[in-house]
Amino acid sequence: MKVVANVRKEQGSGASRRLRRAGYVPGIVYGGSNDAVPVSIEHNPLYHALRVEAFHSSILDLEIGDESAQVLLRDVQWHPYKPQVMHVDFQRVAADEKITVKVPLHFVNEETSPAVKLSAGIIGRVITEVEVSCLPGALPSFIEVDLSQLEAGKSVHLSDIAFPPGVSSVLPAGENPVVVTVTVPGAAEEEPAPAPAAAAPAAPAPKKP
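User: That's the sequence. What structure does it adopt?
Assistant: Structure tokens below.
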């Protein structure tokens, strides 16, 4: 995916406001061996690109005048209540250096899984994206989670997901979060009935005179 930008010569809040009024978004490109470069990008094409899921988790081809660089979208600032992009950050990437990116999960075969088809279970998606580490050339735009074998009473953990070659999840050691759960309506265990109250002890018999 390609992004076209111009070098932003004027900086500061006043210059940024003028850019926005003219239909452009101020931004910055940083990382790598080059200095950070302030840029401006036409608002409407950028706004529509940001509505595409893959734009947030793909290597982008950024053109700045006569130069080009491969970058990742790292941050987007939105207007508090208008559909307006206020600022964007891009990070340069090198082909031989690993990157860390959040990638969306795509769930497939949910309706044909035994949990849904046989048990009328309700699938709960606990996690919808995962942070991965890989070289730029191996970065997937999404990771597929196949639920075709999911049964009632089971769940899917992150370790159950098949990652593409060269891609690994970024998690603290020992963590294996739940990604998908199954709830079957009416299958919750009933609470045990309260135990009957113990009988009161019999009153002592009156002593004979």
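DSSP finds three helices and 13 strands in the chain.
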